[in-house]
Amino acid sequence: MHKDSILDIEHLTVRFPDKTVLDDINLSIQRGTMVSLIGENGAGKTTLIRTILHQLKPTKGKIIAHPGAGRRHLEIGYVPQFRNIDTGYPLSIKSFVGLNRLKHRWPFYLPQEHAALISALKRTNLLKLQNIRLGSASGGEKQRAYLAQALVNDPELLILDEATASLDVKAKNELMTLVQQLNQSDQLTVIFITHDFELAQKYTQRFMFLNEGKIETGPVADLSEKFLEAHA
Amino acid sequence: MFVFEFMRNAFLASTFIAITCGLVGVFVVARNLSFLSHTLSEIGFAGAAFGVFVGLSPLNGMLLFTGASSLIVGTLSVEKSHREASISAVSSLFIGLGILFLSLSNKNASYATNILFGSIVGISVAEVNQLILLSGIALIALLAVYRILVFDSFDGVGAASQNIHRNLLSMFFLILLALSVSIGAQIVGSLLVFILLTLPAASAQYMGRSVPSMLAFSLGFALIGVWLGLYLGYVTNWPVTFFIASIEVVIYLLSLIYNRWQTN
């Protein structure tokens, strides 16, 4: 275990009946860093993330979370890859962001929940757009709304799953700049799953490269080298 | 018109029907279950006919059949690509069964018409009380899972990434839907109950931008439909279901126009 890590992964193995997806992985993610997770389709990125999110049980090994001071468990915000929001989608951006409030059962929001909702909208520059229908928002605005929904429970760790894949270059950079700001101002730790090396090098500090069940890590400067090695 | 006991019963019953169907309908539409709710109402017809055949009340027969079949559909057809076909098959079978049970029970054609298209004259105080009780159960069930159901219905992908028992929730909602179909069919009839379960909610999607506002619009539209429908039916002696259907369609068209006008 490293000093000031937010997540320690020790000897993690995940095996499905037909194949071993993750094979004895050891990994430590430092609090407050931005890390990109890279690998071919089927390399096990989703399996790793689902294990971190407690949706899959490890076959062997463990994941140790270190929540910050005053927190009982590590709150993780997750922005999934595919969302089916078409133009007829009826909810406003504000209502959509507020969907992810499951800690209470009341059909209405408590005052502190409403404050958290407004704060998430503010942090993603959506305050002015909060009442427009999500269905009529632009691609970049939609991605910001997905991000805001993941932020609404004030997570310490944010996982972005191919969040920029459907965006044009300008919107990609806007979204990543926003994530970088959150990372710097709130000490938010970020795992950024991507195929886009350029974005990874521009916005994250370290990389995790998954290949045939094994993981390699390092500073993003070494990324292209590693990738070429793997494909040699 | 409230001098007549049957009108008082009909108003009370349809008020609770509108509340249940109006609220549950918002989730039916959000979860794309309009077609299934139509099938469940046909199954309800078979259930009512079966009830008549074995000596149960039509409502209890419906509850039995729709409840059982929602469990079957829930376990059978999780995959979307197969859902429509399997629902059609189930639906054909049940309409056939309904006709069989009716013919075996030697009831006349007007009885079948009542089950299929609804009737306001036949509702007794005891039946009204049962309807109110069932509505209460449906609303409490809705309230118990409200936040999870809202998340799962309006953002399935987002809800899937949380640790929610989505299959269990789906099943729970199907049973709730079966209950609502059986309740709603008592006034508008089993063939047209899906009007109350889908049209007010579909209109509400054009009007509201938050789930509470959609629930309010849907509830309002459902209430306007049944109240005005009952009144017009009383005055003209035409079938109430005809008026309810027409009113809901008009509201739907107006909402559609309003939405077009707003987005332009």
Automatic annotation (TrEMBL), chain A:
It holds the Pfam family ABC_tran. It comes from the Bacteria. GO terms for molecular function: ATP binding; ATP hydrolysis activity. This is ABC transporter family protein. Residues 7-232 form the ABC transporter domain. InterPro entries: AAA+_ATPase (IPR003593), ABC_transporter-like_ATP-bd (IPR003439), Metal_Ion_Import_ABC (IPR050153), P-loop_NTPase (IPR027417). Belongs to the ABC transporter superfamily. The keyword ATP-binding applies. Keywords: ATP-binding, Nucleotide-binding, Transport.
Automatic annotation (TrEMBL), chain B:
The chain crosses the membrane at residues 12-30, 50-73, 85-103, 131-149, 169-202, 214-234, 240-258. It comes from the Bacteria. SUPFAM superfamilies: ABC transporter involved in vitamin B12 uptake, BtuC (SSF81345). Its main location: membrane. The keyword Transmembrane helix applies. InterPro entries: ABC_BtuC-like, ABC_TroCD. It is found in: Cell membrane; Membrane. One of its GO terms (cellular component) is ATP-binding cassette (ABC) transporter complex. GO terms for biological process: response to zinc ion; transmembrane transport. Belongs to the ABC-3 integral membrane protein family. This is ABC 3 transport family protein.
